[in-house]
């Protein structure tokens, strides 16, 4: 090993404590790349959704990649955890279709709300409010969150590949038509190239896992993408190598575009609160689920350095709003990197670097179809199921809330709503069963707030 290479390895070892976490540089970097590949879709989807509100597509693309890079670096160096961050799904849809279309506000108004949310989150992180919420959730519910996220992330993979259909769209004369009432999940068209490729990838990745190949998810994505080229699902950009490079679009039309004139309006309060609510429980849920699977929780169910992890999330949201994108949050797809062996901030740093490279290599990353990353997400769903063995299913005041947490995440298509059902049912059942001592004061407060939110929002 050259002295320069040894020096680099030594730096990573000292900074991220690799041996202490029983990992190495190669494993961490590959885990980071795997995480990136399973969440790279956000580079196309987020600009697409936010551009519907009137924002510049290219500017939002650059803001998405840069905010993800900044947030991942913050997670790496502040918390030393393998959690990756980027502008979150659901929150971007709320930004465009509720705040802008539904409420009639400008996208600048919505962006201002995201910025205010980020500032509030930074303040809450210093006062350890989100840390207190994290620690107040009972251990059985924390394990249930991991299982629920597993089902949720597997559902995302199945939908992305077209293996299952949400029923929202149907084909009419060769054109996709929106079916407003169609929300039932059904079997997709397994003869479609996308579904076939995903099924092939599922078999390939499964074999790699069965043979204990290190980086099985990563190699599964690469092999599946290559197989997808002759199938017409994935393709080389412009058909030539030079076509993979591009200069990042300018941020000038989206960065720092705030609307300060209405920050004290009632609508602003409602919008900021909604962003806060969804982001808090999406992030807390993801941290619980992924850290539980990785064995990072201590005996009391607490996550060391959770305050730093939540602070990285808050900083990402604030910087993201300044650059011109919706709320940045910890991604559930981080579980794919953890499943590939990622245990430290070097995984998050590697993911961040990939987002940085995406700014100039976007055509190359664009060749990886959802069908190629779907097998990784589906199998991560399997990995996330293991904590179900440790849930107390004999005590129904524990089992029912855990069950509702698990099933409502995929059925409501929301990590936050799964947590709401679990926590409210936990408090109600414990109180009615005379087991009030099992409920922490914070749980009472949160359950009450959840009920109020459901009634009035």
TrEMBL record:
<keyword id="KW-1133">Transmembrane helix</keyword>
<protein>
    <submittedName>
        <fullName>Putative MFS transporter, AGZA family, xanthine/uracil permease</fullName>
    </submittedName>
</protein>
<dbReference type="InterPro" id="IPR026033">
    <property type="entry name" value="Azg-like_bact_archaea"/>
</dbReference>
<keyword id="KW-0812">Transmembrane</keyword>
<dbReference type="Pfam" id="PF00860">
    <property type="entry name" value="Xan_ur_permease"/>
</dbReference>
<feature type="transmembrane region" description="Helical">
    <location>
        <begin position="268"/>
        <end position="290"/>
    </location>
</feature>
<keyword id="KW-0472">Membrane</keyword>
<keyword id="KW-1003">Cell membrane</keyword>
<feature type="transmembrane region" description="Helical">
    <location>
        <begin position="141"/>
        <end position="163"/>
    </location>
</feature>
<feature type="transmembrane region" description="Helical">
    <location>
        <begin position="109"/>
        <end position="129"/>
    </location>
</feature>
<feature type="transmembrane region" description="Helical">
    <location>
        <begin position="183"/>
        <end position="209"/>
    </location>
</feature>
<comment type="similarity">
    <text>Belongs to the nucleobase:cation symporter-2 (NCS2) (TC 2.A.40) family. Azg-like subfamily.</text>
</comment>
<keyword id="KW-0813">Transport</keyword>
<dbReference type="GO" id="GO:0005345">
    <property type="term" value="F:purine nucleobase transmembrane transporter activity"/>
</dbReference>
<feature type="transmembrane region" description="Helical">
    <location>
        <begin position="439"/>
        <end position="456"/>
    </location>
</feature>
<feature type="transmembrane region" description="Helical">
    <location>
        <begin position="400"/>
        <end position="427"/>
    </location>
</feature>
<dbReference type="InterPro" id="IPR045018">
    <property type="entry name" value="Azg-like"/>
</dbReference>
<feature type="transmembrane region" description="Helical">
    <location>
        <begin position="368"/>
        <end position="388"/>
    </location>
</feature>
<dbReference type="GO" id="GO:0005886">
    <property type="term" value="C:plasma membrane"/>
</dbReference>
<dbReference type="InterPro" id="IPR006043">
    <property type="entry name" value="NCS2"/>
</dbReference>
<feature type="transmembrane region" description="Helical">
    <location>
        <begin position="216"/>
        <end position="236"/>
    </location>
</feature>
<feature type="transmembrane region" description="Helical">
    <location>
        <begin position="310"/>
        <end position="332"/>
    </location>
</feature>
<feature type="transmembrane region" description="Helical">
    <location>
        <begin position="57"/>
        <end position="78"/>
    </location>
</feature>
<feature type="transmembrane region" description="Helical">
    <location>
        <begin position="25"/>
        <end position="45"/>
    </location>
</feature>
